[in-house]
Amino acid sequence: MSIDTDTARKVAHLARIKVEEDELPALAGEFNAILGFIEQLQEVDVEGVEPMTSVTPQRLKRRDDVVTDGDQQDKVLANAPDAREGFFAVPKVVE
């Protein structure tokens, strides 16, 4: 697949990027280079290769999925300009 200047103009418009008319051929060339890299990646045989989350094999730390209130109400409200009865107090804006 090859990107021409009209397609580059359309992509720039869709991305809301202002590109001058004389810069469109260079942008089309960059798009074509990116597509060339993607085509190279398609040629790689990845059959049997496990997906990785990191370059070093490690297990992510896990914790129990338990719903709590956080038990930090005092810490959360400590910097509030106005707190009453354990809640943030805000000025009334609707009559």
From TrEMBL:
<dbReference type="GO" id="GO:0006450">
    <property type="term" value="P:regulation of translational fidelity"/>
</dbReference>
<dbReference type="InterPro" id="IPR003837">
    <property type="entry name" value="GatC"/>
</dbReference>
<comment type="subunit">
    <text>Heterotrimer of A, B and C subunits.</text>
</comment>
<keyword id="KW-0808">Transferase</keyword>
<dbReference type="GO" id="GO:0016740">
    <property type="term" value="F:transferase activity"/>
</dbReference>
<comment type="similarity">
    <text>Belongs to the GatC family.</text>
</comment>
<keyword id="KW-0067">ATP-binding</keyword>
<keyword id="KW-0648">Protein biosynthesis</keyword>
<dbReference type="InterPro" id="IPR036113">
    <property type="entry name" value="Asp/Glu-ADT_sf_sub_c"/>
</dbReference>
<dbReference type="GO" id="GO:0050567">
    <property type="term" value="F:glutaminyl-tRNA synthase (glutamine-hydrolyzing) activity"/>
</dbReference>
<comment type="function">
    <text>Allows the formation of correctly charged Asn-tRNA(Asn) or Gln-tRNA(Gln) through the transamidation of misacylated Asp-tRNA(Asn) or Glu-tRNA(Gln) in organisms which lack either or both of asparaginyl-tRNA or glutaminyl-tRNA synthetases. The reaction takes place in the presence of glutamine and ATP through an activated phospho-Asp-tRNA(Asn) or phospho-Glu-tRNA(Gln).</text>
</comment>
<keyword id="KW-0547">Nucleotide-binding</keyword>
<dbReference type="GO" id="GO:0070681">
    <property type="term" value="P:glutaminyl-tRNAGln biosynthesis via transamidation"/>
</dbReference>
<dbReference type="GO" id="GO:0005524">
    <property type="term" value="F:ATP binding"/>
</dbReference>
<protein>
    <recommendedName>
        <fullName>Aspartyl/glutamyl-tRNA(Asn/Gln) amidotransferase subunit C</fullName>
        <ecNumber>6.3.5.-</ecNumber>
    </recommendedName>
</protein>
<keyword id="KW-0436">Ligase</keyword>
<dbReference type="GO" id="GO:0050566">
    <property type="term" value="F:asparaginyl-tRNA synthase (glutamine-hydrolyzing) activity"/>
</dbReference>
<dbReference type="GO" id="GO:0006412">
    <property type="term" value="P:translation"/>
</dbReference>
<dbReference type="Pfam" id="PF02686">
    <property type="entry name" value="GatC"/>
</dbReference>
